[in-house]
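Researcher: Structure prediction, please.
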Amino acid sequence: MKTLRDEVRADIERVVREMFKDWVLKVTMKLARSPFGDECLYIHMYLDDNMPPEEGAKLGLLLKNVSDVMGEELDGVSPYIRPMTEGSVEYV
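Model: Predicted structure follows.
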């Protein structure tokens, strides 16, 4: 299993916060294996309940930007971005 260095974690959080600004309350990340055995990076971004729905249209671009900053050391790891609200249960 690959590791998620602090620098990469910080870069990913920076990209999330730059795109969603003050709507982001918290970002958590966890490397895990999918049920099929693939390495995945689960990114849980906790968003303000009052975020306008049109902000959600940015998720596709966010996935591309996150993949760009993951770098070569996480090559082959699939990122999954999960928009969450406070009180949501993280499942990985």
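Model: Residues 6-84 form a domain with the GMP Synthetase; Chain A, domain 3 fold (CATH 3.30.300.30).
Researcher: Thanks, that helps.
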